[in-house]
Design brief:
The protein is α/β, with parallel strands linked by helices and about 625 residues long. It is about 40% helix and about 20% strand. The strands form seven sheets. The chain has a five-stranded parallel β-sheet, with helices on both faces. It has a five-stranded mixed β-sheet with strand order 12-13-14-15-16. A five-stranded mixed β-sheet has the order 24-25-26-28-27, sandwiched between helices.
């Protein structure tokens, strides 16, 4: 592994990692960590935190990574539910959270921290540095040289390896229990599929509490032996990405959207000659790039032009994105826009989609090289069976399925059938080429009621994702089930729209002010009406065209309960919180006053108020498909 510290990449060899894991394991054993006991780990991607997880697993204990950006109160349920005594955190911020909730988690007796900055004068029972734990472990290992090996030998593949709490959109999170076998199996299948070797490199920058990051930079790291690079901080990820030049890269669509938005903003500010060259070669790339990536012939003239474009535009662009060496780039978690998907493939980046979840240890479907498409999530990967229920729900059977939900037999029985099928809660179908297509969450697929489109299917996520394909729209929440028409609440992308406004000399005093500008509403209306035109050509979802919309006065935020920690919209919560806005949209109002409580990063609360405009959008007559 590598970790960037003070601007310099520090290296940990496999031998160095093995020594560190043994010292930590012996230290934790001496401190009383028992086989089968849970241990919480909170922090960013750091070699010593990964080593701590390995040390716990070596002793037969079960690491539980929690989100480092979660507020203190969100940690109470997982810690108490799993009866956690041991907690290892990254720094002062995480120590403060644990001390804040200690009264509500009285069993939390051992608290270790990696980064000592700011903690010199802390005097709390059970609070120790990881350095002192390592030192004690080294002494214990010298006195008991066989201890570590004996503990490792006691482990079995069917033992529980880790637990991941899902950031559910409703109720308390559920602890997803995975064994060593499920994680190793899926990591191996994924590595084999994309021919990953010890020569590959990745950048570990997403939260370790998310199973996708845990598979890519932990389980697959152990299986394939490649190099994991840990960025210095969240703010340096883009710089570190360019320095590392990973060969294997994973990001949710919002990251790819953000990278492309920053490129387009810079391009709009470039000189006329450079801008003209960029647009000319990008038009060529859009026309022939995807076919070239898929191994199809593109003709001699286009091939020569593309090589010239690669030298002048695509190569420098890949380098600027930090993707010069990327051999495989995956996206998952949400649907990615066809334009965004095609953009990356057209400039020579092997962008692909995968399908999976916490409960399936990620890998259910993968896209083979030369079969990457924006509208599917790939073919079932090795060991996976897929079938559809009568309601259209996708059911999965796989060696990577969860053992169950911790202390929640009722929830386990809801998702796992007696004969081993897992209910994904996603609606979809297998197309003629054997690829899986996802429509929406089963519970979210609804029907319009009354009006011209009575009984028509309504898939909110499908509509929301189409809106989010536009760089000016960051988030969208669609409503329409059991109503006559579809209405949407929208978050603008502050950076993209701010840049757009500045180039038009449009002054604004912040997010709330910019969001309510008439010019911004016209910009968003154009995006909405383009989506409507597109939906009108979709036989199933033509009725889901957007009749009315508004631009929210604040960004949807996980700290305010509006998004999950993996940035999924909590649609039901938002409908309740902003009920007055939903009713105003459907009531035909032109404007509506709202005051909303918000939580700041330092834990304080405040409020944001505004009178929001509500706007109509043009809808289109459904286009009948040709016979």
């Amino acid at each position: 592994m590598r970790e960037k510290e003070y601007g310099i990449w520090q290296t940990t060899t496999w031998a160095g990692m093995a020594e560190l894991v043994e010292a930590l394991a012996c230290g934790l054993h001496q401190a009383g960590l028992q086989r089968g006991e849970h241990m919480v780990v909170i922090g960013a991607n750091r070699p010593r935190l990964y080593a701590t997880m390995l040390a716990a697993q070596s002793l037969g204990a079960i690491p539980i990574p929690l989100y480092q950006d979660a507020v203190a109160a969100e940690c109470v349920f997982p810690i108490n539910n799993a009866e956690v005594r041991f907690c290892v955190v990254e720094d002062q911020e995480q120590v403060d959270k644990m001390l804040e909730i200690r009264e509500r988690c009285p069993q939390l007796s051992h608290l270790y921290y990696d980064d000592p900055r700011g903690l010199r004068n802390y005097d709390q029972p059970g609070l120790r540095s990881m350095a002192s734990l390592i030192e004690a472990g080294q002494a214990h290992a010298k006195a008991h040289p066989q201890l570590f090996r004996e503990q490792v030998e006691l482990g079995r593949t069917e033992d529980v390896a880790a637990m991941f709490f899902t950031s559910g959109t409703t109720g308390n999170p559920k602890g997803v229990v995975h064994t060593h076998q499920t994680l190793i199996n899926r990591a191996t299948v994924g590595a084999r599929f994309d021919k990953l070797t010890r020569e590959d490199e990745i950048l570990a920058y997403l939260p370790p509490a998310w199973i996708g990051q845990n598979i890519f930079s932990y389980a697959q790291w152990l299986v394939a032996g490649y190099v994991v690079n840990c960025p210095e901080s969240a703010s340096t990820v883009t710089i570190d990405l360019k320095e590392v030049g990973p060969t294997y890269y994973f990001a949710p669509p919002r990251i790819f959207e953000g990278l492309l938005t920053s490129v387009m903003i810079r391009m709009e500010d470039a000189g006329a000659i450079k801008r003209g060259m960029f647009h000319r070669f990008m038009a060529l790339a859009r026309r022939v790039g995807p076919d070239r990536m898929d191994g199809k012939p593109i003709g001699l003239i286009d091939s020569i032009k593309y090589r010239l474009g690669d030298w002048l535009v695509y190569g420098p662009l890949r380098n600027n994105l930090g993707m010069s060496r990327v051999r495989v780039a995956y996206t998952a978690g949400e649907a990615i826009g066809p334009d965004l998907f095609s953009f990356y493939r057209s400039i020579g980046i092997n962008m692909k989609q995968l399908y999976g979840s916490t409960e399936t240890a990620v890998f259910v479907c993968l896209q083979p090289d030369h079969e990457a498409r924006a509208d599917t999530v790939g073919v079932p990967c090795e060991g996976v069976e897929i079938k559809l229920s009568e309601s259209g729900e996708i059911l999965v059977k796989s060696p990577g399925l969860l053992k169950g939900y911790y202390k929640n037999e009722a929830a386990t029985a809801e998702v796992l059938t007696a004969d081993g099928w897992y209910h994904t809660s996603d609606a979809g179908f297998i197309d003629a080429s054997g690829h899986l297509k996802i429509i929406d969450r089963v519970k979210d697929v609804g029907r319009l009621k009354g009006g011209a489109h009575d009984g028509a299917m309504f898939a909110p996520k499908y509509v929301e994702n189409k809106l989010k394909f536009f760089s000016h729209i960051k988030e969208a929440v669609a409503y329409g089930d059991q109503r006559e028409r579809v209405c949407v609440m929208i978050n603008i992308d502050f950076e993209a729209v701010g840049n757009w406004a500045e180039r038009r000399n449009l002054p604004y005093a912040g997010y709330t002010d910019l969001a309510q500008k008439p010019e911004v509403y016209e910009l968003i209306r154009e995006c909405v009406e383009k989506v409507n035109a597109d939906l009108s050509r979709d036989e199933l979802l033509a009725g889901s065209q957007i009749s009315r919309f508004l631009v929210l006065h604040k960004e949807l935020d996980a700290d305010d309960g509006e998004l999950t920690r993996t940035n999924k919209v909590r649609r039901g919560f938002i409908a309740e919180k902003y009920g007055v806005l939903v009713e105003a949209l459907y009531g035909g109002k032109a404007e509506q006053y709202i005051q909303t409580q918000v939580k700041f990063e330092d834990g304080r609360t405040g409020s944001v108020s505004a009178t929001l405009k509500l706007s109509d959008a043009k809808t289109f007559t459904p286009v009948k498909a040709a016979a």
